Amino acid sequence: MSVIISLSIFPIDKGESVCSYVARAIKIIKESGLEYDFGPMSTSMEGEWDDVMAVVNRCFEDLKKDCDRIYLNISADYRKGAPGRIKRKVVSVQKKIEPQ
């Protein structure tokens, strides 16, 4: 069983560029050991629900230390079955759009 989430988290009280805050969250995600994929607008993670939500909470708690206002958006896809969907889903779509 696994959940894949798409997470966007950043402060909205720190000016125009918030990449250093995003980097802090990505570092927490990377260090968690969960499968993840970092993108320009969000980061996807896959794992067991409690493990993934614990990482989201660590990201939030880290930014909360010095940010007064934080934007956080999560979408989730939970599915019973084997893990590894974070890569398989992309490969499946790529096969359908690439010429045979």
From TrEMBL:
Domain Thiamine-binding protein residues, every copy: 6-94
Signal peptide positions (record): none
GO cellular component: cytosol
Pfam family, one: Thiamine_BP
InterPro entries assigned to the protein according to its UniProt record, in alphabetical order: MTH1187/YkoF-like, Thiamine_BP, UPF0045_domain
Stored Gene3D superfamilies: 3.30.70.930
Family per similarity comment: Belongs to the UPF0045 family.
Name of the molecule in the record: MTH1187 family thiamine-binding protein
Organism ancestry: Bacteria, Pseudomonadati, Thermodesulfobacteriota, Desulfobacteria, Desulfobacterales
